[in-house]
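User: Good morning. I'm curious how adenosine monophosphate would be positioned relative to this chain. Could you predict the structure with it bound?
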Amino acid sequence: MTIGASLAAAAAGNPKKTAFICEGRELTYGEADIAANRLANALVDHGVGPGDRVAVIAHNSLEYAVTYFGIARAGGVSLHLSARLAPDEIAHCLDRGDAVAVLCDPELADSISSTGRRLAVVSTGRDDFAAFLEAGAPEDPGREQPPDAPSSATYTGGTTGFPKGGLHTARSRLTWAEIAVHWFGLGSGEVMAVAAPMSHAAGGFIWFQPGVCVAATQVLLPKWDVPSFLAAAERCRVTATFLVPAQIALLLDHEAFEPARLSGLRKIVYGGAPAPPGLIERAAETLPRCEFIQNYGMTEIGPLVTLYREDRDRHPGALGRPSPRIECAVYAAPGSEAEPGEIGELCFRGETLMQGYVGEPDQTQAFFRGSDGWGWTGDLATRDETGLLTLVGRSGDMINSGGFNIHPAEIERVLLEMPEIDDCAVFAVSDPVFGELPVAAVVAADPSVKIAAEALLDDCAGRIARHKRPRRIIFVNEIPKNAAGKILRARLQDRYAG
Ligand code: AMP
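Assistant: Good morning! Here's the predicted structure, ligand included:
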């Protein structure tokens, strides 16, 4: 199977079924199939050849859905860049990716055309895109690359440096889809809201692509905000969605939220960042007819680990169990697996791994480390005797204080249990004696109540080892996080290092 063929299969069985809905417009599977052919032919006419890289920089839309399959059918490799990137980040990714053409939101077209790169720039604005498709023939040009050739890249990082694109084959992406369909229990009767960006691995290949594989109807949300999500879910009777934990929190706390408005919703798959303690339990109480499934996924490796209610009830905070389609190990050191309960780095090996980062051989080597095919996630975890994984933190976030490794998550867990604290992040500051010391940035639950830092530090004293206690508490209004809800520790370090 290839990416283009996955849409053809859905269209063959369901030509008149609504495939995609976006802001009141719709495409059936049959229409999407023909539009993808037209785009493929138009791209070929514009000089896109086998294996050429074509970037997409757009918000979720019907046009975006067509590009997924059209670029593949033209024989191209799609580079999915976030529409939120800054101009120099876009320029960097287009350079590293060696893109020959860009399909982008109309407001980006001018700035991309003026970068001086030799690129065909096509606007995904409704009329421009329709005119571009008009010029392409409606038959499949039959140029799609074989399943084991590079097919698409999605980008990660952004917390430091420039985004990195994980390049995957069609076989890898469609294995992701197979895992997602099976684990999330997706079927053709589903109405799936795509509330994460389709440019991200999670929104695009862990949610949107599996939806096409089962010929579900998908509601594409161009931008995330709670009122639009609620309105779309109500109007289209959405049955399933993928949300990052931050979106779930925003939803529950929004003044427009009423559980009755989501009465058709049966499934929320969540992941992309750790869920704060208690959030999923609160959401499950508020939406009792909804199943909550956690997925741990990664741009480089796919949807790997899933947590269902049974394990969550017994082990709140657990990550879940790995897919049998992929090898999983927790390595204390290269070649040496951690004992049950011991902290190590999560590693995966198998057909869902990326081929490498686009144009970044050094970073690719750093990810694979050796020649034995294991990908090193940078995530620290423990595994119990039954195989259940629990995430402990990121290896890069580790604080080394006087020779002791301290994981920020160990301290954050204790702070978050204190009723006075709403949110927090622990980070390292350098110290001439200890090397590094842990410092906590804290958001008060009630900003009008003055909390004594000493009281919080005393509270920590009885609950975590002495060397792990934060040496200072800094009160902040907000913890800096990226769009997926991951803490931007480097920003806190820059600000408070002195
Ligand atoms: P990205 O490839 O940008 O989606 O980032 C992948 C990283 O997000 C992983 O390596 C984890 O650190 C984090 N992550 C993804 N899913 C989860 C999850 N369910 N729980 C905790 N962290 C997660």
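The chain has two domains: 3-381, 399-495. The radius of gyration is 23 Å.
Let me know if you'd like a different ligand tried.
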